[in-house]
Amino acid sequence: MPAVPEVRAEQALAQLCLNLVFVRLRRFLSRLLLALFALLCVAQASGQYVTGAARSEPPCKHASAWSKPRPISTGADMNIKDQVVLVTGAGSGIGGAAAREFAKRGAKVVILVDRRDTVYNLADEINASAGRQVAEVKVGDATNDSAGITRDALAVRLDKTTGKAQPYPINNFREVIEVNLVAPTYWAIEMVTRIAEDRFKRGLKQWHPDEEVQGAVVFIGSVSSLGNKGQISYAVSKAGLEGATATLTKEAMFHGVRCGIIHPGFTDTPMVRGLGEDYIEKNILPFTQLRRLIRPEEIADAICFMVTNPAVSGQLWADAGWHPQA
Ligand SMILES: NC(=O)c1ccc[n+]([C@@H]2O[C@H](COP(=O)([O-])OP(=O)(O)OC[C@H]3O[C@@H](n4cnc5c(N)ncnc54)[C@H](O)[C@@H]3O)[C@@H](O)[C@H]2O)c1
User: For ligand 1, which residues put their CB under 6 angstroms from it?
Assistant: First the structure.
């Protein structure tokens, strides 16, 4: 099988995009998220919204956990219905599809975070099709800093004429890590922080399975986390999210928060379409098992599956059989 010319393909995948974070909280936090991320933290600290059990009834006493048979959830909608969801990078592609899907499944509020104000159009569309005010917009950079712009490049590029070797620019590396790794990790950490504080205030200690799950985070990784030529910064950032997932999976469950990461393959978004039809036809499709791009709705469905199925943690590969070449 001929190798996919990775560098061009990787250029598409490596454009800076934010990762998606799903937040399941008891009360509205939407009004707080009309402010920037930094303000979000302040508002949360002020107790204007309370994270915690998703249902209105108080959590069951732990002692009853073994004696009371609990109903098994019969559908994904049960878990998403009436929850609050936050999607970063919601204005396009996978984030947009996930936002639509959460709204369709009955989320109470879906907060759309994007730096482009075209995200308002998506909010209008979601609200119109839901027949209610479900989508709320927060336009701004999802990092606390300006968004980095990066271009993929080999870690070391040798000029074959001059013999001069060029290392990958460290500033680009830092920018990618900031946007792709630091920002989503801290959105997640902030959420767990508020949930931990809220539980403390309510006299709750270690989460028990007899309670409702308190929240869920799904990071958007990439098949490139396996390592991919020309994507040193992007691959490191996505692999870093695996570490964040693995650690939060272990730590955050103390507070009742589940964590996972999905690794999409080539998905039909503006980012990938930017490669051009010819390139996609010749260099991508033949190497996928589906012989087509993954639909954003398929990734959104997988994200909802990760959120709603309590047995799922860790990593989910949604790659249509495409893996980076050696
Ligand atoms: N499309 C794919 O084939 C593919 C494959 C693997 C992983 N991914 C990952 O999925 C995620 C979404 O990719 P996509 O293809 O839907 O991208 P996209 O370009 O279609 O959408 C990304 C959105 O994020 C917004 N955004 C970017 N930087 C931002 C910032 N700093 N603050 C706020 N908003 C910002 C953009 O405005 C845009 O609306 C990314 O994390 C990407 O790495 C995509």
Answer: 13, 16-19, 89, 91-95, 114-116, 141-143, 147, 179, 220, 222, 264, 266-267, 269-272
Q: What is the pLDDT of residues 175-213, one digit of tens each?
A: 899 989 999 999 999 999 999 999 999 999 999 999 989
- Round to whole Å and give the CA distance between 4 and 325: 7
C-alpha to C-alpha distance for 210 and 49, rounded to whole angstroms: 23
Buried b / exposed e across 83-92, counting CB within 10 Å, b at 16+? Answer: bbbbbbbbbb
User: pTM of the entire structure?
Assistant: 0.80
What is the overall mean pLDDT for the chain?
A: 78
Chosen CATH of 6-47+78-318 out of 1.10.1740.10, 1.10.10.10, 3.40.50.720, 3.30.1510.10: 3.40.50.720
